[in-house]
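Worked Example 4.2. Consider the chain below.
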Amino acid sequence: MLLKQMYDDLYKNTKKIFLVTSAYKSYDVLNLEENTSQAGYSEFQLGTSVSLKVNGIKDVEFVSTDVYQWLLEHSYEYGYVLRYPSDKVTITQKESCNIFRYVGKENAQKMHNQNLCLEELNNQ
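Applying the procedure from the previous section yields the following structure tokens:
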């Protein structure tokens, strides 16, 4: 429900939308897919992560969109955070500009205010 609200509010404020290209993935799907996390080790099996994109834009170009900027500024209000921020690669061991993870509003607020990634939040 919060993802839908975030989508609606993004559209109200920017007249732009995002597409969800990936969300929950079952164990069987992960076993069949190439170039994904090993089944049993993927955040997408939890149902809390989503991959987002803007239609017609390559994933690597997502960071240059108004949608990405709006999400960085507002996603925490809906309980979502950028899962793999570019300034936290040494901690997360991964960089991806289009995966957002639901962590709850309280955790997202804290992560936003203190510029924390999920690994840092878990170590506090």
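The first helix runs from residue 2 to 14. The first strand starts at residue 19 and ends at 22. Compare this with Example 4.1 before moving on.
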